Amino acid sequence: MVKETLCFCNAQKYTAILLSAAEITTCGPSTQNTCSTSGGHAFDQIIPLASASVTSSSRTKHMPYQVFINHCGQDVKETLASRIYNSLEGTGVRVFLDKTELNHGDFFPLAIEAAMRSASFHIAIFSEHYAQSPWCLAELAFMIEIGETIVPVFYHVEPFDLRWAIKGKGKYADALSEHESKGRIASEELHRWKMALHRVSFCHGYIIKNTE
Question: Domain containing 94: what range?
């Protein structure tokens, strides 16, 4: 099976759709674009462009995933993650979101790993309870290891919450300490998670803050 190569223009298109789905209306020029949210869709006119490289007629349930959404379900599954999924799918882009793509009887660890391997564009939504989930952290570490494009979305958290976790500081530090205190996660795996958070905190991404 030949994996689609993600060109720069596709990355721009996917990112534009991501922004529209998040209802972002203003973005700053900084390395991490700080954005506010409102009820408008300023990027609606860009959404149809994503279908230029993936047409609905050629898209089937058996084709490889092009985009993988890494997220904490209790925070964003029914809101931001679903909006991004629906916006991308509406243009014919093949997207993996667990609640819609996993079927009864699927061995989900292997299904999720296969989806991450096939996708050439990963969206990681960092939210308040993200670091409490071993699944989220394990997915993130794996995404970094396979070396594909990762666009971080900092949803009511800041990049330094990820960056400082390795030093025991920031919002995610307590969650990581709790994983350690329970003794269920090997120290090597915890270090792998912390390094993944630290690394992705330097990726160009978007900070979403609700200004309403």
Answer: 8-53+66-210
Question: How many domains are there within the chain?
Answer: 1
56: which residues sit within 8 A by CB, 6+ positions away?
A: 91, 92
Cβ contacts of residue 36 below 8 Å, gap of 6+? 24, 25, 26, 208, 209, 210, 211
Predicted pLDDT at 49: 31
Q: Report residue 23: phi and psi, to 5°.
A: 60, 40
Phi first, then psi: what are they for 113, rounded to 5°? -60, -40
Give the CATH number of the domain where residue 190 resides: 3.40.50.10140
Domain annotation covers residue 61:
no
The secondary structure of 81-126 as a DSSP string is HHHHHHHHHTTT--EE-HHHH--TT--HHHHHHHHHHH-SEEEEEE
71 with 136: CB under 8 angstroms?
yes
Contacts of 148 (CB under 8 A, 6+ apart): 6, 119, 120, 121, 122
Q: Is the dihedral of CA 29, 80, 132, 186 positive or negative?
A: negative
Banded pLDDT at 92 (limits 50, 70, 90): confident
User: pTM higher than 0.70 for the full model?
Assistant: yes
